[in-house]
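Re: the 266-residue chain
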Amino acid sequence: METPTYWHRQMADKPYFERLLWNKPETRAHSGKLLIIGGNKFSLTAPGIAFAAASKAGIGTARVLLPEAVRKTIGKTFDEGEFAPSNPSGSFSNKALAQFVDESQWADMVMLAGDFGRNSETAVLLDEFLMRYGGPVVLSGDTLLYFLSSPRKLLCRPNTLIVLGLSQLQKLAQAWQPPVLIKHSLSLHALVGVLNGWTKENRSMILTYQPQHYVLALNEQVSTTPAEERADWQVPLAATSAVWWAQQPSQPFEAITTAIFDYSKV
């Protein structure tokens, strides 16, 4: 079967956009600034994993914005941690919006890492933040759950990368109008075709895992990278993608495809 021109097949041992490896900044000062937002008083796993992965991928500077409710838990042991107002349940409150916006103006890239908890006040906060912040953003973990009721707000937003498992992608596709049919039984060729068609309608980037391949789609272009699935891959791959995108802001599709190669070879 002939490979469509929109399908970019990256090899496990060779990056498709090899020149980007040579364009990677060599100094910390030119390696980008990343703001990671996430966590609640019951879990800080996602922002912690995101920070570690971003550091490993070579980010210049990273800040982690956490809810005030965890300040006593974190104490002074994490210099990169900053705190925004939280509500009684330990998640971010509406009062955190101004700080979200202010901190995002410092950053080249924002990552909504996850572990926000299921909280209606936080849901309103995240929705309002994405309306006010027009810069690049990467979403992973449970962040997606807040947008399933209104997927167009997310999928029609430019400068947006959504990193999600195939089951989450199914839910997002079903919430789209008209619904997009995505099944676990789809072959790689079929999934690539579906994502090519779907990204004619939306402006965000979608990164998922189909057995034995990571798949990235943007503007009718799709790249695939062979790899074994890792447990809890979404947050670290999202953070790695955020770093590469921050360092190559004018080439998001190429940068994130290369980020997938970088993550997969480790």
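Residues 234-247 form the longest helix (14 residues).
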